[in-house]
Amino acid sequence: MMASALFRFYEELNDFLPLNQRKTDIELTFAPPAPVKHLIETIGIPHTEVEVILINGESVGLNRLVADGDRVSVYPMFESLDISPLLKIREQPLRNSRFVADAHLGKLSRYLRMLGFDTLYANDLGDRALAQLSAEQLRILLTSDRALLMHRIVTHGVYIRKGAPLQQLEKLICRLGLLGSIRPFSRCMRCNGELHAVAKSAIEDALQADTRRVFNEFRQCQDCGQIYWKGSHYQRMQQIIEGFRSDE
Predict the structure, then answer these.
(1) CB contact at 8 A, 83 and 144
(2) What does the pLDDT look like over 3-26, one tens digit per residue?
(3) What pLDDT is stored for residue 186 in this prediction?
(4) What is the rounded radius of gyration, in angstroms, for the C-alpha atoms of the chain?
């Protein structure tokens, strides 16, 4: 015997829907019993994009079974509200500053590292490996692959829409409320290792003559040994941060 329920999706979750289903009730016919997670993803919304689900006004988790005649309201992440009393989907909110990015987001990954965010990236990792890293290390999975976000073991993820890497970065910073967590000049853009202050005398032989003459403060990656100083890349980073702050 088939059942039906009304679904309504809010804010940016509508971006995943065809135009005729946006910002309106969607009647879904299904064979019970069916968890709400399955039905939400049947409609096309990755569960990682969802933070609050209400069934008939009651906050529920992803495994809650949907019954005939239920009304289901589905909300994305709330950036500025304390929704702790409503959290039923996962033990922690989506807001987390550790990431793992898929093969198509190399530039975004480097920008995140530039701002000090722990971001794993390798262009040879398959979907299963990415999902496992996300789950095992409690990292937010960044991907433009909607199907990857629907992987059952992925609990924290963000769908990255097409666009220039800086635009993607700005949207991610705003969506997750990360502006206050930015720690520039603290993480290696090349390998993600942590940077530590290093005496100029210890790395002087590795510097080009102009760099050695102009700069006196240096940081070095503890993992790959890459050396950084406050040159043009640092100035660009400062401009990006100030741009984010001016948009608040």
Answers:
(1) no
(2) 999 999 999 999 999 999 999 999
(3) 93
(4) 22
Instruction: Please tell me the predicted confidence (pLDDT) of residue 78.
Output: 63
Question: CA-CA distance, 17 to 119, in Å (whole number)?
Answer: 29
pLDDT level of residue 84 (50, 70, 90 thresholds): low
User: Domain check: are 177 and 197 in the same one?
Assistant: no
Place of tokens 């399955």: 38
Write down which residue in 86, 118, 134 finishes a domain.
86
- Residue 81 banded pLDDT, cuts 50, 70, 90: very low
Residues 171, 191 within the same domain: no
Please check whether residue 241 lies inside any domain of the structure: no
Q: How confident is the model at residue 103 (pLDDT cuts 50, 70, 90)?
A: very high
Establish if 71 belongs to a structural domain: yes
pTM across the whole model: 0.81
Task: Indicate the number of domains in the chain.
Answer: 3
Q: Residue 94 and residue 159: Cα distance in Å, rounded?
A: 12
CA distances for 48 relative to 28, 134, 148, 219, 228, angstroms? 21, 11, 10, 36, 36
Domain identity same for 200 and 175: no
CA–CA distance, 141 with 75 (Å, rounded to integer): 19
> What b/e string do you get for 39-71 counting C-beta neighbours within 10 Å, with b at 16 or more?
bbbebebbbbbbbbbbbeeebbebebebeeebe
Structural domain including 153 reads 99-181
Is position 175 within any domain?
A: yes
